[in-house]
């Protein structure tokens, strides 16, 4: 079974240095408050009891509705900072072991609990999160950010984000906006669409901070609106195939050069991401 993503509407972009941020709307029905998301959602994150593992964390939804957790969400603390490898809709009440990657190579000590602050890994890391050899590539890319964001004693992605002055101060979602499209150095790179404006707002700052880190040191070139709309049209026309479950949701994927990855719940899109694997951000 296949389907295509919902209709997308790309608005006027705002350029700050190498970044151009376009608002994205859609005619798809909103999920409203059917699920929770963002750092305020009642989710506990901890190391595996008595046997911590670099690639696994135990996540528990203490609420009474599913919680949307995004690929690349940063989980801070514990034995080391981690990032979730895949988007999921976490069922209430049941502790679940989720796959993660380490984004702090130089530390393996500390407590059991993690904090969620709604922060995200940069786009340049996302294609590597689920790959068999992805951990070493994530470490390499986190280390490479040192050239534009300064040193870190533990090679921590969080340190690099903390040291980054945002280019997007003052930008806010528009009324009814459900997503954003990010252009970097003149080319569309990344699109995110959410099931509601509320969900987008909950992740807004984390998305823009992640995009800022990717943009540092790149040419201050505006991304043309025509290229942004062409990118959105490619996303719209990409057939998606259901691949596996995503907690209580279903995961749909498709595409080639432009990779599209979505999670649906009750036949509505809870989250969709798309990125251009040929963008200069993905160069080795």
Measured as a percent range, the helix fraction is 10-25%
Main sheet: strands, sense, barrel: 10 strands, antiparallel
Runs in which pLDDT lies below 50 for 5 or more consecutive residues are: none
Strand content: 35-45%
Number of strands: 19
Shape category:
globular
Total domains: 1
Oligomer: single chain
Rounded to the nearest angstrom, the radius of gyration is: 18 Å
Distance between the termini: 35 Å
Order of helices and strands: EEEEEEEEEEEEEHHHEEHHEEEE
Which class do the helix and strand fractions yield?
Answer: alpha+beta
Q: If helices are DSSP runs of H or I spanning 4 or more residues, what is the number of helices?
A: 5
Mean pLDDT: 94
Structure description:
Strand 18 and strand 19 (268-276) form a beta hairpin. It contains 5 helices and 19 strands. Strands 1, 2, 3, 4, 14, 15, 16, 17, 18 and 19 form a 10-stranded antiparallel beta sheet that branches. The mean pLDDT is 94. It is globular. The chain is of the alpha+beta class and 284 residues long. It has helices at residues 134-144, 146-149, 157-162, 197-215, 225-236, and strands at 2-3, 8-10, 14-16, 19-26, 36-37, 43-46, 56-61, 67-69, 73-77, 82-84, 88-90, 96-102, 114-120, 179-184, 187-194, 240-246, 249-255, 258-265, 268-276. The two termini are 35 Å apart. The protein has one domain (2-282). InterPro entries: ARPP-1. Residues 8-275 form the ARG and Rhodanese-Phosphatase-superfamily-associated domain. Pfam families: ARPP-1 (PF20208).
Q: In summary, what is this structure?
A:
The protein has 284 residues and is α+β, with helices and mostly antiparallel strands. The chain has 5 helices and 19 strands.
């Amino acid at each position: 079974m296949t389907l295509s993503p919902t209709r997308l509407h790309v608005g006027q972009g705002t350029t700050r240095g190498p970044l151009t941020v376009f608002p994205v709307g859609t005619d798809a029905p909103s999920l409203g408050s059917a699920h929770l998301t963002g750092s305020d959602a009642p989710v506990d994150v901890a190391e595996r009891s008595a046997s911590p593992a670099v690639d696994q964390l135990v996540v528990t939804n203490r609420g009474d509705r599913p919680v949307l957790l995004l690929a690349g969400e940063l989980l801070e603390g514990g034995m080391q900072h981690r990032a979730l490898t895949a988007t999921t809709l976490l069922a209430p009440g049941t502790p679940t072991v989720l796959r993660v990657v380490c984004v702090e190579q130089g530390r393996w000590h500390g407590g059991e609990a993690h904090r969620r602050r709604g922060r995200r890994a940069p786009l340049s890391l996302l294609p590597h999160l689920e790959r068999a050899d992805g951990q070493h590539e994530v470490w390499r890319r986190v280390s490479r950010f040192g050239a534009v964001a300064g040193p870190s004693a533990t090679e921590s992605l969080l340190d690099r984000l903390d040291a980054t002055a945002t280019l997007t101060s003052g930008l806010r979602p528009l009324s009814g906006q459900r997503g954003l499209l990010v252009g970097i150095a003149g080319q569309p790179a990344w699109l995110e669409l959410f099931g509601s404006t509320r969900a987008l707002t909950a992740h807004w700052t984390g998305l823009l901070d992640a995009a800022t880190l990717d943009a540092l040191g790149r040419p201050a070139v505006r991304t043309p609106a025509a290229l942004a709309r062409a990118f959105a049209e490619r996303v719209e026309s990409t057939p998606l195939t259901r691949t596996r479950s995503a907690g209580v949701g279903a995961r749909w994927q498709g595409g080639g050069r432009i990779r599209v990855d979505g999670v649906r719940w009750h036949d509505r899109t809870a989250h969709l991401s798309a990125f251009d694997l040929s963008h200069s951000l993905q160069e080795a």
